[in-house]
Amino acid sequence: IRWTEGVGWHDARLAPYAPIEMDPANMTLHYGQAIFEGLKAYRQADGSIATFRPEANAARFQASARRLAMPELPVEAFVEAVELLVQQEQAWVPNEPEQSLYLRPFMFATEVGLGVRPANSYLFMIIASPAGAYFPGGVKPVSVWLSEDYVRAAPGGTGAAKCAGNYAASLVAQAEAAAKGCDQVVWLDAAEHRWIEEMGGMNLYFVFGEGEDARIVTPELSGALLPGITRDSLLQLATDLGYAVEERRISTDEWKQGNADGTLTEVFACGTAAVITPVGSVKSNGGDWSVGAGEPGPVTMELRRALLAIQGGQAPDTHGWLHRIV
Ligand code: PMP
Fold first, then answer.
1. Which atom of ligand 1 is nearest to 230's Cα?
2. Highest-scoring range by mean pLDDT, 23-32, 130-139, 205-214
3. Please, what sign has the CA dihedral across residues 267, 270, 275, 281?
């Protein structure tokens, strides 16, 4: 779907995957007006196909567009584009547990020019690509590096938008994490390097206590972290399952201390790609420590099963999250 100043949205069409031609002075290549989303189409227990909360992706896409001075695609147009593409490609929606058809809606400037200002024309597209299970050999805890030298987002910046530049800026920190022997980077706040924000492409959750007394905490939306749709869904699901859930600030000291005295029992990350990933160990300038006993924790796995069961149509969709497509 194209957008041109004075014309609005037009030229919606379904086309086979193919390269696109780009002018060297395409403004996206210079000024980075590029935003995207990620969602999945899941084969349901009865053979039908559904996506999970596509309206939420559409709304976040609009918020990203506003932050990058780009036009907002109406929610209905976004969802309809998802529907048409999944209908067209339904043979590619796998029928195996935890597999899906990954959808990548994105938008970028198409105007040609060298002056810095919002472009006057844009292209919205969606790519569909089958995705395997994130943990083909079973869920395994990941190791994380607490990044102090790099920040992902600062107050007033683009941290809450899903824009390409945020990911470009994260690559060097991800490489640093890998060099420290860690799977993922954990971002801290820009001012004090003390408050936990999020992980590479996932939001974080902390479980204090055990069993029925477990309290679940996730960093509050500070404006610098991405409001994950999985994060939002888990706030609800954890409440449904009877847990006390809090959105608040949580510091690296509280994390370290909680693991040391055993009050912090589980940590996990969540996002569309990995669903829920347990965090097993932490490395930082302030020391290294492990989280739990090296196995995914019971609350982590309970929430993981509950979310996957809704996405796969095996559990009742009490919140109306599934969007049936075929
Ligand atoms: N944080 C970041 C930086 C991400 O890229 C993602 C993936 N979109 C998430 C969190 C998780 O968001 P969601 O649950 O909507 O996939």
1. 14
2. 23-32
3. negative
Rounded to 10 deg, the angle between the 75-88 and 54-67 helix axes is: 130
- Quote the CA–CA distance of 45 and 275 in Å, as a whole number: 18
CA distance 102 to 93: 9
Q: Residue 308 and residue 276: Cα distance in Å, rounded?
A: 9
pLDDT confidence tier of residue 293, bands split at 50, 70 and 90: confident
Provide the whole-model pTM: 0.97
Query: Do residues 232 and 221 make contact, with C-beta atoms less than 8 angstroms apart?
Result: no
A 10 A CB-CB count for 317 gives 16
Give the separation between CA 62 and CA 75, rounded to whole angstroms: 8
309's tokens: 């069961």
Please spell the DSSP secondary structure of 224-276, one letter per residue: SS---HHHHHHHHHHHHTT-EEEEE--BHHHHHHHHHHT-EEEEEEEETTTEE
Single out the residue of 285, 286, 229, 289 nearest to residue 264, CA to CA: 289
pLDDT (tens digit, 9 = 90+) per residue, 166-193?
Answer: 999 999 999 999 999 999 999 999 999 9
Question: Over the stretch 12-39, which tens digit does the pLDDT of each residue have?
Answer: 999 999 999 999 999 999 999 999 999 9
Distance between CA atoms of residues 259 and 128, nearest Å: 41
Ligand 1-lining residues (CB < 6 angstroms) = 38, 198, 201-203, 226, 228-231, 271-272
Domains and CATH numbers, the chain: 2-131 (3.30.470.10), 142-311 (3.20.10.10)
- Quote ipTM for the complex: 0.99
Q: Which residue has the tokens 């009742």?
A: 316
Ligand 1 atom with the smallest distance to the CA of 152 is 3
Tell me, in angstroms, the distance from the centre of ligand 1 to residue 221's CA: 13
CA of 25 to the centre of ligand 1 (A): 30
